[in-house]
């Protein structure tokens, strides 16, 4: 019998989305099948027509179904639009135990001679080498004698001003004195987590989550709790709200704009609601915004910071993804945790590289940073489209692909029998590095998922690498084939063809 659970705390339309997505995934609904009418489904589920409409619109946005004028809604016929599934996670907080796998991935991340589809380095799609070198030369000529000294502990004031000014362009007001320059986004994440939580505390994370954040949680002895995350809209607020009821969550660590690995961008409205929800419980939000400048089109998403009223949002930024990860320059807006974050910064690393800070300041000042971004974004979008086309050509038809709105990675769901750790080893043998899915989950999910990076100048080597990878996936899909289990939640049948 078809049902939704009105007491479950999840939005009803989300339940309908999962219900139908599950039917499509377990094959009860096939490409081209007609969905029940809005009125019909509202009667069967005893919910309102607008709720069903909202669910259908969401499914349409996710590319799972299509509206045909005067005919109704149909399951997407083309695999062009097959999207990775959102996770339904009902886990408990757990220690992160991903170190061994992360070690293995890191062993190969910088290995020369490998096709580097495992490393997320978007700036390489259009390197700013020449303009950046010129900026550095100008700085060296001007400030030679100062350059061997320490930078101010909290950052070069000129760079802090530039960063604050850029927020002004996005419609938010940031005091330069509240910008803390760090050694990359990773140090900013460390300072943020240590400012608001301690060993044993529970940190809510997306599912899948950036593995560098998970490794950090692990190294600080904290526990991670995965929250349902939609591949299109980001973290589910109803799932988060439920988790806040059930667990003593000390802080949340979520992507602000473009997430890694899903590539999705939550709406401004979604971010506002997220901040409101967390502020109502005085739970700090650490927003990882290192990809925010790399949305492919439209306005740059406004950081959640702008919606904060109580100083409980800590924003992490970085120049690694846009310009130069080797410079190791990022920043933190610590909100009301500024004092603690500053102390930690002093204790952990004293200050950050002066030459790199002054070079970036010069790079931004000259207008080169914006010109660079204007060239980089379309390159990345073009690469994403080409990589998706290659995967559709070379990978098994059941492969589902994310539709990133920015950044430099694709998230793939492979046919059930494929273990992406085995694929990782086999791919290294043929000279390709990838990132296996399990690394993105503390609770051992995503065994048959992987992340691929398109942050490189497009080349024939990438195309033939994808072809070879597709062959490997096909081989593993055949050798590991087992009957697909039907998830209990998706066991309800919407298709009149199958009783
Ligand atoms: C989502 C996310 N946050 C933070 C970082 C760390 O950035 P940085 O290289 O500036 O330390 C990365 C790097 O891969 C990332 O992908």
From TrEMBL:
> According to its UniProt record, which protein family does this protein belong to?
In the C-terminal section; belongs to the class-I pyridoxal-phosphate-dependent aminotransferase family.
InterPro entries registered for this protein in UniProt: Aminotransferase_I/II_large (IPR004839), HTH_trans_reg/aminotransferase (IPR051446), PyrdxlP-dep_Trfase (IPR015424), PyrdxlP-dep_Trfase_major (IPR015421), PyrdxlP-dep_Trfase_small (IPR015422), Tscrpt_reg_HTH_GntR (IPR000524), WH-like_DNA-bd_sf (IPR036388), WH_DNA-bd_sf (IPR036390)
Q: Tell me the ranges covered by the HTH gntR-type domain, including all copies.
A: 10-78
Q: Name the keywords, alphabetized.
A: Aminotransferase, DNA-binding, Pyridoxal phosphate, Transcription, Transcription regulation, Transferase
Q: Please, which domain of life does this record's source organism belong to?
A: Bacteria
This chain belongs to which protein, by name?
PLP-dependent aminotransferase family protein
Gene Ontology molecular function, alphabetical: DNA binding; DNA-binding transcription factor activity; pyridoxal phosphate binding; transaminase activity
Q: Which organism is it from?
A: Elongatibacter sediminis
């Amino acid at each position: 019998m078809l049902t939704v659970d009105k007491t479950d705390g999840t939005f009803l339309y989300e339940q309908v989305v999962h219900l139908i997505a599950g039917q499509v995934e377990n094959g009860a609904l096939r490409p081209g099948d007609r969905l029940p009418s809005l009125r019909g489904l509202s009667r069967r589920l005893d919910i309102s027509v607008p709720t069903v409409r909202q669910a259908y619109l969401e499914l349409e946005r996710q590319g799972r179904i299509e509206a045909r004028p005067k005919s109704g809604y149909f399951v997407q016929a083309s695999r062009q639009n097959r999207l990775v599934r959102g996770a339904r996670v009902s886990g408990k907080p757990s220690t992160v135990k991903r170190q061994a796998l992360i070690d293995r991935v890191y062993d190969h991340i910088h290995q020369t001679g490998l096709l580097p589809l495992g490393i997320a380095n978007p700036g390489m799609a259009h390197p700013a080498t020449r303009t950046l070198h010129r900026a550095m030369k100008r700085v060296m000529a001007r400030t030679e004698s100062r350059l061997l000294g320490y930078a101010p502990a909290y950052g070069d004031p000129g760079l802090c001003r530039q960063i604050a000014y850029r927020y002004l362009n996005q419609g938010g007001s940031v005091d330069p004195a509240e910008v803390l320059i760090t050694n990359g986004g990773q140090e900013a994440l460390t300072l943020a987590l240590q400012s608001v939580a301690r060993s044993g505390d529970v940190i809510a994370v997306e599912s899948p989550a950036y593995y560098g954040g998970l490794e950090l949680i692990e190294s600080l002895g904290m526990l991670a709790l995965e929250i349902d995350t939609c591949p299109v809209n980001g973290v589910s607020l109803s799932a988060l709200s439920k988790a806040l009821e059930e667990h003593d969550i000390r802080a949340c660590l979520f992507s602000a704009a473009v997430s890694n690995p899903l590539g999705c961008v939550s709406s401004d409205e979604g971010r506002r609601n997220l901040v409101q929800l967390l502020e109502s419980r005085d739970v700090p939000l650490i927003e990882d915004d290192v990809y925010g400048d790399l949305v492919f089109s439209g306005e740059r998403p406004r950081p959640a910071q702008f919606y904060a009223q109580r100083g409980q949002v800590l924003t992490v930024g970085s120049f690694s993804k846009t310009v130069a990860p080797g410079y190791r320059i990022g920043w933190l807006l610590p909100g009301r945790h500024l004092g603690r974050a500053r102390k930690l910064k002093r204790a952990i690393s004293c200050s950050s590289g002066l030459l790199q800070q002054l070079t970036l300041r010069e790079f931004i000042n000259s207008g080169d940073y914006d010109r660079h971004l204007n060239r980089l974004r379309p390159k990345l979008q073009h690469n994403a489209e080409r990589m998706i086309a290659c995967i559709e050509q070379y990978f098994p038809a059941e492969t589902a692909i994310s539709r990133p709105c920015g950044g430099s990675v694709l998230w793939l769901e492979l046919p059930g029998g494929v273990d992406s750790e085995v694929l990782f080893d086999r791919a290294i043998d043929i000279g390709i590095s990838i990132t296996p899915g399990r690394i993105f989950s503390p609770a051992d999910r995503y065994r048959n998922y992987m992340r691929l990076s398109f942050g490189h100048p497009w080349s024939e080597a990438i195309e033939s690498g994808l072809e070879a990878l597709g062959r490997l996936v096909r081989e593993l899909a055949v050798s590991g084939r087992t009957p697909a289990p039907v998830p209990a939640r998706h066991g309800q049948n919407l298709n009149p063809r199958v009783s």
